[in-house]
Amino acid sequence: MTQTADWLVAPELAPDAGDPVMAPLYAAATRGALALPFCAACSTPLELEQYVCDACGASAEIGTAGREWRDVPLAGTVHTATLVHRREPGLIVAPGPYPVIDVELASGHRLVLTTAAPSGQAPDIGAPVEIAFRTVGAVTLPAVRFSRSGSPTAASH
Amino acid sequence: MTQPPAITGLGMTAMSVTAGPDSYALATEAVAAALADAGLDRGDVDGLLVGSSQGVREDRLGVALARRAGFGDLRLLEHLEIKGATAVAMVTRAVLAIRVGMARTVLCVFADAPIGPGKAAGSTYAHSGGNAGVRGLERASGVLGSVPTFALLASRYLHVSGGTEADLCAVAVSARAWASGSEQAVNRTPLDDEGYYASRMISAPLRVLDCARPVNGAVAVIVSSERPAGRTAPAIEIRGMGAVHPMRRRRAGGESWFGGGGQAVDDALAMAGTSRDGLDVVELYDPFSIVTLCLLEEYGFCAGGQAGKFVRGGGIAPGGELPVNTGGGQLSGFYLQGMTPLAEALIQLRGTGGDRQVPGAQTALVTGIGGRIDHHEALVLAREAA
């Protein structure tokens, strides 16, 4: 596998793609899809580290049929966002401030991500965004792409 | 003489912003100071509760402190862990043990030493967290340490409440005004709005002056049903205790940071038989300025969305309607998690606050929070009648 340097972080921050909690998400990302867990019994969107459904009480343990990973639409809106100015030497390789975005996905999940392409702007809360992908070390992971209608109008901070 | 559990000893190290002794050495020093304050020997203590910061570090304080700090046989010995709420929870745990006769005199100690040689605390935090789980994905997305997470909270809060960064500024400036009168505070230089806005942005909208001031240090308190004859200060009664752990889900279409925490304060006030109006000082866990705003609303001191206006009007500052974080809190005082608000409440109720003393302070609220404001622990403390 070829590795291209990520725009934001050093390879040592690559997630553990073999971590059973997250492995299906990273596996899906390598094929350009966003997969997230649902309760198999009632289809409630589950947090990534949620193992019992809070809606119906069904077990959603890792590796069981109660935890259903489904490909979800690559669309969401901004729940909240920040532009991070502090760049830890050795871990952050971007030359300037970078955005971190908490996305409300159309599937009902929430994920905290940065952008796929280099950016020095944080989007407005409520702006529509799309999900794209970036690669850190050897791991592909989801990231935000600003929708044409939701791109930041100005560096707000 | 056996009486209701009260805090009869307080020991604090100097709060250092440079590398020095490890957390075990700091804790041992605070333990000795608390014993001297209470007029007790190690042999008088039959319980030891230990709390430490959550980052995995070599010198993280644990129950090995019992041996390290020179104690003999103990009846109660535990390392408590409820994230940032731990220090306040230790006092509750001590009271419960004493009430059922499982201990008589319990020392609660918290120590932290995130600042190492050539290593700032922020760097220590940035390197903590690992590559697994959701945290692994978030760290790969640039969420290092806790500031970006609380910046996300701040952005959301200001959006929901209609607030602005002037609200954050008012919290930081109020905290510094209190700190300027505190011998224990690390940042005592006067601060105005201009100085606040000139401070370095860490993760918008949070500037460095919106963030807790990490230190190497330790605090120990003694909870006891006895009133040692040699104690140096009045006993501080623990009149009310409350805790709540709201289980909010991070899901689209809802708020995941706010709501549910007020029950801890309601319960503590009810147990104490008092109300918010009966509080002379309020000591909140304030790792970031935004948290003070959230908690003022969460705990029922301000209506939803009104905390910013209250603080901008001087409501929590010296001379204000509600004295909050009277030692400068974690922002300007020092960041030793729940020991920061607890120690300050004890100082105020003892009447030893010097230049920042709230005249006649008799009753205090102390709260600790953990996680992303997921855990709340509250105490109502009151000075015992002589």
Defining traits:
heterodimer, A: 157 residues, 5-stranded antiparallel beta sheet, 1 helix, 5% helix, B: alpha/beta, 9-stranded mixed beta sheet, 33% helix
Can you describe this structure in just a few lines?
Helix content of chain A is 5%, strand content 31%. Chain A has one helix at 23-30; strands at 35-39, 67-71, 75-84, 98-105, 110-113, 128-136, 139-146.
What does it look like?
- Chain A has one helix at residues 23-30; strands spanning 35-39, 67-71, 75-84, 98-105, 110-113, 128-136, 139-146.
- By secondary structure, chain A is mainly beta.
- Chain A has a domain at 1-14 and 73-157: Beta Barrel (OB fold (Dihydrolipoamide Acetyltransferase, E2P)), CATH 2.40.50.840.
- In chain A, the strands form 2 sheets. A 5-stranded antiparallel beta sheet of chain A has the order 5-4-3-6-7, with helices on one face. Chain A has a two-stranded antiparallel ribbon with strand order 1-2.
- The radius of gyration of chain A is 16 Å and the shape is globular.
- Residues 153-157 of chain A have low confidence and may be disordered.
- By secondary structure, chain B is α/β, with parallel strands linked by helices.
- Chain B contains 13 helices and 11 strands.
- Chain B has helices at residues 23-38, 65-68, 86-99, 121-126, 133-140, 147-161, 165-179, 193-198, 262-272, 289-298, 307-312, 329-333, 339-350; strands at 2-12, 47-52, 76-79, 105-112, 201-203, 206-207, 217-226, 236-244, 281-283, 363-370, 375-383.
- In chain B, strands 3-2-4-7-1-8-11-10-9 form a 9-stranded mixed beta sheet. Chain B has a two-stranded antiparallel sheet with strand order 5-6.
- In chain B, helix 7 (165-179) crosses helix 10 (289-298).
- Chain B is globular.
- Chains A and B meet through strand 3, strand 4, strand 5 and strand 7 of A and helix 4, helix 5, helix 6 and strand 5 of B.
